[in-house]
Amino acid sequence: MRIKNQLTFGLALLIGAVVWFQILLLWLQEFFGYNPQWGILHHILGKPTPFDKLVFHGLFFLTVYGGLKALWFLLEQFVYEIKWSRKVNIKVHKQYTQKMNQKFENIGFRIIVIEEESFVAMTCGFMIPRIILSTKVIRQFSDRELDTVIWHEYSHCRNRDPLRSLILRTLEMSLPYFPILRRFSHYIMVWMELLADQNSIRKMRTSRDLAGILLQSSQLAKKQSVGIGFADVAINYRIQQVVVPDQEIKVPLFEYHSIIFSISSIVLLTAAVFSSCS
């Protein structure tokens, strides 16, 4: 499943790159009058009709909206990252932080414990991932359960999941008219958690500790905001993986209507580019 997850991520990047290439051509045509001549297809499409021009301008504004939305999202994430880093630096619990880093000095990623009475267990940092735990997690869980949490988050750090999540969400934001990207994003996000759980089970050689953590975190999620990595959209799949380990987990990847709509969008966008260049 790890390979399929990586292939799905690569396919999402490929689709995003192809679509954004078409969008850039639209923008070049609109702003600079760029007019590429692409042989046979160029002549097959013929001269644009008034309807073609209307569709072209509609797509142009739609793509600009998607681009601005993605830029705003990235700006929000950048600001949030700065604010969160400041909060972490202010609330860091030095004693617990030192203890956890000494215990896991060989994992290659920094562990930071913050003074916080809510449940926080997450991986953050797009370029330099680090594991963030709250003092509530340290005090509430046993040593084995803490080890389970760390190995789960270690998987997110090793695979650069915060950065991958940012890329997927940016593509999803910038291309809302390609619902297949939303399906890919959901599939990959779920398997990020499942693979992280598999890593912790493998390291701990049992799923018992993880089962207890999932139960507690799912109950806490009903009362408060829980850190990324435990109470999330994948919780049902994760519980299934622990309770019925021999049963194959089937996370839906494709939906016919999303495929059809996405293909139609690509065809329409490509046709608009070529017809506008006629």
TrEMBL record:
It comes from the Bacteria. PANTHER family: POSSIBLE SENSOR-TRANSDUCER PROTEIN BLAR, SLR0241 PROTEIN. Keywords: Membrane, Transmembrane, Transmembrane helix. This is Peptidase M56 domain-containing protein. Residues 120-225 form the Peptidase M56 domain. The chain crosses the membrane at residues 7-28, 54-75, 256-275.
